[in-house]
């Protein structure tokens, strides 16, 4: 199978989709005399393996750090949300207390308004009574 798209483009023959190990070995060791350099080729491949292993370890460690950073960010967000919830609850309690105080003040104002009407009515009645007594005195 040949892929049109590659995640990481590479010219390395080992990464090719139609890789043939026999052709690859024949290209490295074209003659019997070239087999004398087999130790050098093996050392080079071991170095490449170690390099790839190190790269994989670094990527895995990087992912672990990213996961840890993500967890830390999530924990911080949860902490901020819980603090926000506490603040909202406090505001709600204070709003309810303010509403109760407004109701009490309104009730007191209504009582004072009623007392004012009664006092005004009493003064008017006393004034009329005074005028009546004055009129009765002048008649006698």
Features of this protein?
single chain; 140 residues; mainly alpha; rod-shaped; Vps53 N-terminal domain-containing protein; Vps53; Vps53_N
- The fraction of residues assigned to DSSP E strands is under 5%
How do the helices and strands follow one another from N- to C-terminus? HH
**Oligomerization state:** single chain
Q: Radius of gyration over alpha carbons? A: 48 Å
Q: Write down the overall mean pLDDT.
A: 87
Helical fraction: over 70%
Can you describe this structure in just a few lines?
It comes from Timema podura. The protein is mostly helical. 79% of the residues lie in helices and 0% in strands.
Helices and strands in order, then pairings?
Blueprint: H1 21-28, H2 38-139
Could you please describe the fold and organization of this structure?
- With 140 residues, the chain is mainly alpha-helical.
- It contains two helices and no strands.
- The protein has helices at residues 21-28, 38-139.
- The relative contact order is 0.03.
- Residues 17-139 form the Vps53 N-terminal domain.
- This is Vps53 N-terminal domain-containing protein.
- It holds the Pfam family Vps53_N.
